[in-house]
Design brief:
Length: 410
């Protein structure tokens, strides 16, 4: 069993709780065998997005998850999470651990930008006390660093590249730019959408100014590596007002209020059996409080009163779900072989929950399961309605689908 094919990058300056967020998101508070790997390499772990399991909607007594977990009717689907080295101003020029940050960032599909909502760390990440630094400026500075890094990399040898494309006659502009950006794992669709949004497709590349190129790069990044802002440390003084300012001044980004430290405490308390808590729940219940000393009990009550009841949770699970389901536009699809039992050939009920891009088709699902299944695809069947579906059927969130291929006919 492996983590999903999505990589979430956790970015931000130092001392904002970025590593705490990573630790909280990758620590599983329930004991379940055969779950996906906890750690892939030193700074890449496995986190989970949370979705109501299809077995609940279908009225089935249970499911038998293989590639994910199901707890109390909630399906937890694995994604890779990467803790990127802390950013400082000038990271795009190699300052601090900038080079390491940039190399890591290339692989990420979506970015969780953790900022200190309390404003208690300066531009360099040095603690200065609540309210001493502006988290709105912090978020803007981090976004600029990311965009500037991409710009600087694409700008290298740009003039020669632009002349070659302009004199290439019928050369495919989208294809040429996509090839140029392939090192950032940027797709043709990202390039095409960015060209349309900027209106730059009408201009010869050799006439693009630096500002044109920066505008194009920013638009590409928004599509290829969308950013969700995690307003961390919401329990500290001044954070609530700063969350409102972040939402007001950075309207194009989703802003999620969070307390990574509270989430980490809850998950560890749940793992010890002291409380009952599922990531994403708006509250927890006491289980065996004898495992907690008086200080831990006070911390739990503070988390409940000052964070969970105020914000509806700690924000960590919400940030993950927002990144994958909203920013990336993913849906969950359940492939099965037996539409009567909603199971695979071994009788396991709804064994796999696959994250698919919104707009994916039945044939895309077939290829995702196995390339041979995609090549020999005949049709699909909606297990809920028993309706036969063609290859161009657009998958919906929560679909339970059987793929019928030539080799399996009859």
């Amino acid at each position: 069993m492996e983590a999903g094919n999505i990589l979430v990058g956790v970015v931000g300056k130092t001392n904002v709780g970025k590593s705490t967020f990573f630790a909280a998101a990758t620590e599983v508070p329930v004991k379940i065998e055969n779950r996906p790997f906890v750690t892939i390499d030193p700074n890449v772990g496995v986190a989970y997005v949370r979705k109501r399991c299809a077995h609940v909607e279908l009225g089935l007594p249970r499911c038998d998850p293989v590639n994910s977990m199901c707890v109390e009717g909630w399906r937890f689907i694995p994604v890779k999470m990467m803790d990127v080295a802390g950013l400082v101003p000038g990271a795009h020029a190699g300052r601090g651990l900038g080079n390491r940050f940039l190399d890591s960032l290339r692989r990420a599909d979506v970015l969780l930008l953790v900022v200190d909502a309390s404003g208690s760390t300066d531009a360099e990440g040095v603690p200065v006390g609540p309210g001493a630094y502006d988290p709105v400026e912090e978020a803007k500075a981090m976004i600029r660093e990311i965009d500037e890094w991409m710009f600087q990399n694409i700008k290298r040898d740009w003039e020669r590249f632009a002349r070659r494309v302009d004199t290439g006659g019928t050369i495919d502009l989208v294809g040429a730019l996509a090839q140029r950006l392939s090192g950032f794992e940027i797709r043709r669709s990202h390039v095409a959408e960015a060209l349309e949004a900027t209106g730059l497709a009408e201009k010869r590349l050799s006439t693009w100014s630096d500002e044109d190129l920066k505008t194009f790069v920013s638009e590409v990044r928004k599509r290829a590596k969308p950013i969700v802002i995690v307003a961390n440390k919401v329990d500290l003084p001044g954070a609530e007002e700063n969350v409102k300012r972040l939402e007001r001044e950075l309207r194009e980004y989703k802003v999620i209020p969070a307390s990574a430290l509270a989430e980490l405490f809850l998950r560890r308390a749940a793992k010890s059996g002291a409380i009952k808590y599922l990531p994403g729940d708006p509250d927890f219940t006491e289980a065996d409080t004898s495992k907690l000393d008086s200080k831990a009990r006070r911390i739990l009550e503070k988390i409940r009163e000052e964070i969970m009841r105020k914000w509806g949770g700690t924000g960590v699970q919400q940030a993950l779900n927002t990144a994958v389901f909203d920013a990336l536009g993913m849906i969950v699809v359940y492939p099965v072989e037996d539409i009567n039992r909603y199971s695979d050939r071994n009788g396991r009920v709804l064994p796999d929950a696959l994250l698919m891009a919104r707009g994916s088709t039945a044939r895309d699902l077939a290829y995702r399961i196995h390339s041979d299944l995609g090549k020999t695809f005949l049709y699909a069947i909606d297990a809920r309605t028993r309706q036969r579906l063609g290859e161009s059927y657009v998958l919906r969130d929560g679909d339970v689908i059987r793929i019928v291929a030539a080799a399996s006919r009859g």
